[in-house]
């Protein structure tokens, strides 16, 4: 065959006609090389992802500033009610009229872009109401006081909050731990509504109730992966000896008509209690757990400080301040400055290795 081809080549131009098998092998090897190169490039891109900035993929990337919404208040102020004592069992102040606000609550609010005015519960009622006129929302903290003057002041402030919302002003309230418990007592009109639970100094999950609608609630802007983490990881801090079981909560018409249950949790003995509620008709959210501790308290080893736990704290703080920005209250700036928390200095109490790291003490 070779001789015939060579011989023919002497007489005329030779054309090479490869066999089909040869063509198949050539194409197959070429395809393998192409695919190999392609997947190598994909692997390299995945190992070192190229993060494109907006100017790299937007044709018109000329900068433009987002217009301010004139309906929103971009200087919101939150009032935090002080609690009896010094927050350290008398180690920092044994004054009989002492009250305190843990600095973690202040930082919690400030981290979301608001300022704080302390509402000192022992002040005359007219002074407390004057301070309410300077703020765009209120936070009731954790603690132990469930009777006497403190209970009475919480009740009166809560009534004012509802009145302002009924009058058309958006005026949010957060109630944490003790705040949750006192609100439950006030709304249910039952001082004995609470039940004992074994949930002191422990981290836990949050279990969302079946078919719950989180639209408009504190959880609305949580990313899906974080909602899942709340149900699978112990990333919220619990520290309470009382609470309300879902059954008792639902049986009380006043409570169930005012609040919807968003989440439940289990105590050490696996008893289920209501852990997060949202008012049906008001911007009022109550937590049996402590959203402020994950980022701002270090006194106990069981406080979760993972990235997910810190993210929970930030989202919860953002929701409160987002609601406060909707408040139509625009108090005089100088009046706010005269009452703002910056007029006070926090006291470091963390040297004992337990309790609050910092507290604001008022006497």
Automatic annotation (TrEMBL):
Keyword annotations from UniProtKB, A to Z: Hydrolase, Membrane, Secreted, Signal, Transmembrane, Transmembrane helix
Enzyme class: hydrolase
Principal place of residence: secreted
Taxonomic superkingdom: Eukaryota
Cellular component terms per the entry's GO annotation: extracellular region; vacuole
PROSITE patterns: GATASE_TYPE_1 (PS51273), PEPTIDASE_C26_GGH (PS51275)
Residue stretches spanning the membrane: 21-41
Keyword Lyase (UniProt): no
GO molecular function: gamma-glutamyl-peptidase activity
Catalysed reactions listed for this entry: (6S)-5,6,7,8-tetrahydrofolyl-(gamma-L-Glu)(n) + (n-1) H2O = (6S)-5,6,7,8-tetrahydrofolate + (n-1) L-glutamate
UniProt keyword annotation of Lipid metabolism present: no
Annotated EC: 3.4.19.9
GO process terms (BP): tetrahydrofolylpolyglutamate metabolic process
Annotated family: Belongs to the peptidase C26 family.
Protein name per the record: folate gamma-glutamyl hydrolase
Organism: Cucurbita moschata
Biological classification of the source: Eukaryota, Viridiplantae, Streptophyta, Embryophyta, Tracheophyta
